[in-house]
Specification:
The protein is of the alpha/beta class. It has eleven helices and 13 strands. It has three domains: 148 residues, Rossmann fold, CATH 3.40.50; 153 residues, Aspartate/ornithine carbamoyltransferase (Rossmann fold, 3-Layer(aba) Sandwich), CATH 3.40.50; 42 residues, SH3 type barrels (Roll), CATH 2.30.30. The strands form three sheets. It has a five-stranded parallel sheet with strand order 7-6-5-8-9, with no helix packed on it. A four-stranded parallel sheet has the order 2-1-3-4, sandwiched between helices. Bound molecules: N-carbamoyl-L-aspartate.
Length: 361
């Protein structure tokens, strides 16, 4: 297989240089200021949205973004109504849809699935969330919110609170913010929902300071940004395990009293109970603005990808090991067995190119 790709697939934001992210943020800003200038920018183009998992904001903001650029949309939001229900694999679905559409946006419950789709796609593929792994366009949304609301991406103390284990938005955001100097991370979670080891290794390798704490009450006063997250019910093995974690963190006006006057609260949404409704009127609550920024940054992304503006990232690195099997049961290579299993690294422990988990050879 030719590993040099023709298309700008967006699987992981960190596959691209920070200069490219900044170009997107600048374009997103321009579009927000003068949306009428872009009304026909994607005229005649078709976007396919393949949502194998529920979505409101991501799906609708992508669709609205394309419509506002003058393009059209096809797709499904319920795999039960597509041939997936008949047992079609990702490779075949992708091959077909990418032959119809000019750009494909995909969300799937399994880690590495969108990269697997991009391997056979005949158009650019955007990762709209692959299991508990990554969510790069939410991160673009978060970066745009930070640049517009805090006017910097550097020297911020960022608290991430809730399900740090399963929250793909958390993983993508930490990877991105560890590329900017001076940021500090306060990881606020229960022991059971702590950030995975491979993510902590990424943080340590970047040289950024981080600490793990249990109490939001104790941590809130030092934060510039508080990123609240939902406990990811659908990723738990049982309802009992979910119920044991639910409701542990609730941001309410009493806690907000302790926060800095210019701290901002973000949340990728949907919220369940982790932010009390009466926090919504606090001017520091920016989560609804954040969702709106998401539409503009996705317009910028669609335009950039369709114009092929950037250097396409290498889709898979490393090599295949004939006997290796990814240790992560939630990795797509353990579900779609025809996939070539790529790993990077030397020695006994290698890293899966689909889901980033470590595997012992
Ligand atoms: C997030 C997701 O799907 O990962 N939602 C979103 O895209 N805005 C967060 C979540 O579902 O908790």
């Amino acid at each position: 297989m030719d590993k040099m790709q023709r298309f700008i697939h967006l699987i992981d934001l960190n596959d691209y240089p920070v200069s490219w992210w900044k170009q997107l943020l600048e374009l997103g800003h321009q579009i927000r200021e003068n949306p009428e200038n872009y009304a026909d920018a994607c005229k005649g183009k078709i976007m396919g949205t393949l949502f194998y998992e529920p979505s409101t904001r991501t799906q609708m903001s992508f669709q609205t973004a394309m419509l506002r650029l003058g393009g059209t949309i096809i797709g499904f939001d319920n795999p039960a109504t597509s041939s997936v229900a008949k047992g079609e694999n990702i490779k075949d679905t992708t091959k077909i849809v990418s032959g119809y559409a000019d750009i494909m946006v995909m969300r799937h419950p399994t880690a590495g699935s969108v990269k697997a789709a991009a391997l056979t796609a005949e158009c650019p593929v955007i990762n709209a969330g692959d299991g508990g792994h990554l969510h790069p366009t939410q991160t673009l949304t978060d970066l745009m919110t930070l640049s517009e609301e805090k006017h910097t991406l550097e020297n911020l103390t960022i608290g991430l609170c809730g399900d740090l284990k399963n929250g793909r938005t958390v993983h993508s955001l930490i990877k991105a913010m560890s590329c900017f100097k001076g940021n500090k991370f306060v990881l606020i979670s229960t022991e059971e929902l702590a950030l995975p080891t491979y993510m902590k290794d990424i943080l340590s390798a970047s040289g950024h300071a981080y600490k793990e704490v249990r109490s939001l009450d104790d941590a809130i006063s030092e934060l510039d940004v508080l990123y609240m997250t939902r406990i990811q019910r659908e990723r738990f093995a049982s309802e009992e395990e979910y119920m044991a974690q639910k409701g542990f963190y609730i941001l309410d006006p009493a806690k907000m009293v302790k926060a800095k006057r210019d701290m901002i609260v973000l949340h990728p949404l949907p919220r369940v109970d982790e932010i009390a409704i009466d926090v919504d009127d606090d001017p520091r609550a920016k989560y609804f603005d954040q969702a709106k920024y998401g539409m503009f940054i996705r317009m910028a992304l669609i335009l950039t990808v369709l114009n092929n503006d950037g250097v396409p990232a290498q889709l898979v690195r490393g090599r295949t090991y004939p006997k290796a099997k990814c240790s992560n049961p939630k990795c797509i290579t353990n579900q779609e067995l025809y996939l070539p299993r790529y790993f990077t690294g030397k020695g006994d422990t290698v890293t899966c190119e689909y889901c980033d988990e470590r595997t012992l050879l």
